[in-house]
Amino acid sequence: MQGFTKRYFILNFNNGTLSYFRVKDNILRGQMPIKESIISANPSSREFIIDSGMEVWHLRAINNADFKAWVDAFNSIKQEVLKRKEEEVKSIKSEVEKPLLVELQELQEKLALLKASQPSNLIDEITQDLSSIIGRSDRESPPAASNGYDERSILSSEFYDAMETFEDYGVVIIEDEGEKSVPEDEFVDNLSVSSSEEEELDLVETPRHALEAATTITESTEEEDLYPLPHDPVARDSDIPICTHSPPSIISFVRKNVGKDLSALAMPVTYNEPTTALQKYAEVIEYPELITNALTHFSDQQGEKILRVATFALSYLSAVRSKERNKRKPFTPLLGETYELVREDLGFRMISEKVFHKPPVFVHYVESEHWTLKYALSPTQKFWGKHSELTTKGTVMLTDKATGEVFTWTHPTMLVKNIIAGETYAEPSGTMTIKSTSGYKAVAEFSKGGMFSGRSEGVVVKAFDHEKKEVPYTVTGKWTESFTLKTNTTEKCIWEAGDLLPQAEKKFGFTAFAGSLNKITEMERGQLAPTDSRLRPDLQQFEKGNVDEAEELKLKLEQDQRVRRKELEDKKEDHVPKFFRFSGNGEIDEGEWEYIQGEKSYWNRRKNQDWDDLLKLW
């Protein structure tokens, strides 16, 4: 029996079914036919065992009042079944007895005639017995059931009597002498289900019953706990101030640094945009619904699932579709700097950390109810005269929690063109391959632009099965606008780029999602790790337009980092990340990084505000 997990339940009184869902999820996860099931209840532990003959559910109520409410609700369903059974029995009995009574009455009449012609004591006895049988049959016909039955207020006292046998049409109360009492602040369910836990089922449109409040369940397994989710809707502003300065001329800078790594060079703050690289790579997860939809509603029979995952992988490119976005770079995070992102509206939480300085490595770990996404990325940007080339080492890994299927891909090389003169823009080059452990893969091919054709935006994605045969479905479109899934018979848009900020050309070319990344909402206020990017003083001043103050603060933070690094070198020690550990399988900038679970995990430490051993970065 596994740990208890959070679930919502709906008891439908019309059809007598109990349905369950995960929190913040309208996808039906399982149904139990209460009418046909045997239900056992234990008042001391407030537990229910519901056995349909096909599967068994083990549930526990939050308190005694809710336990009583559920007993009453289940009994109301059972009473309706019992009433129906009684009516069926009455109908069958009537059908059987009616012709028999007719025959008995005819026999009674014949006996009367016989008695008139031939008086006899034996005939008198037979006639008397026959009359008694006919009269008793009339008296034993069950009365009609009352229609004044309130299904929500049925007393269940009869089920609290000392019952020693199972009844088909009620809740059997079990007195458990050995069960320890359970704190009343727990309401958990333990679903011993082998087949329906992760099945893809249709959405349920039945309104949730008033007893839903009694079905909120606490979470006890760490892998299911997505603290601080679920959370009430949060007011989230995405707008930022208009930028009042332009980046300096890059000509002299380029002449001195052709072929060098831009990320390793100290640059004036005016070359920056008001995000850090940790925040910039959080834009990978701007469209999480693409993942959830792909994994929970589609299969790979026609390649649709892998194509939809590929669409998610490509959607990240749209973050730089505004040409203004390509004139600047994000702030380089300090070693040990972190960034969290929790989106209650999108159903995920993310933690990221800069774990290595040279080469820079940024690790992100994203959790949702249905999947996890992790990536450790190490960017390198070099100037090549008229353009720069951004390559990103590291693999993105998406895992389906339900099936264990894993999808992997790497980011394509991005070319930033016309950095000396003309309109600066970015475009992906080459191909991008998304692989699945199922054997399927999708290959995205980017259109090649001509000498004078401007930015190339077209993408064609083809899928191949485990035998390397091309499947009939494809995805086409522009990474700057939208993607369309083409099947044998239809075409449907499956992704559209999100909104840019109003006057985006004056606000660093930010999308609305990017504009929200540096905000501190009620969810983060007073909860963030002190190393979070939102708390960087130079970034805060820069976003407000205070460039000189931002420059001074940036130089101080970088100098303090050099001092810390020198201290480690003197001690012959290495920096140890707080929330991730290197698990090998490659070089430091291409290998795998593992999120630290347990007591010292980021989210447990956040819950307990356990930040004492974190670096003081500012």
Derived structural class: alpha+beta
* CA radius of gyration: 35 Å
Mean pLDDT: 80
The stretches of 5 or more residues where confidence is low (pLDDT under 50) are 142-168, 176-222
Percent in helix? 10-25%
How does the SSE layout of this entry go?
Elements: E1 8-12, E2 17-21, E3 28-33, E4 38-42, E5 47-51, E6 56-60, H1 64-117, H2 121-139, E7 171-173, E8 189-190, H3 251-257, E9 272-276, H4 277-282, H5 289-297, H6 304-315, E10 329-331, E11 338-343, E12 348-356, E13 361-368, E14 371-384, E15 387-393, E16 396-400, E17 406-409, E18 414-417, E19 425-428, E20 431-436, E21 441-446, E22 458-464, E23 470-478, E24 482-486, E25 491-496, H7 512-516, H8 537-543, H9 547-570, E26 580-584, E27 592-595, H10 602-608
Parallel strand pairs: 4-7, 9-10
Antiparallel strand pairs: 1-2, 2-3, 4-5, 5-6, 6-8, 11-12, 12-13, 13-14, 14-15, 14-16, 15-18, 16-17, 17-20, 18-19, 20-21, 21-22, 22-23, 23-24, 24-25, 26-27
Helix pairs in contact: 1-2, 5-6, 8-9
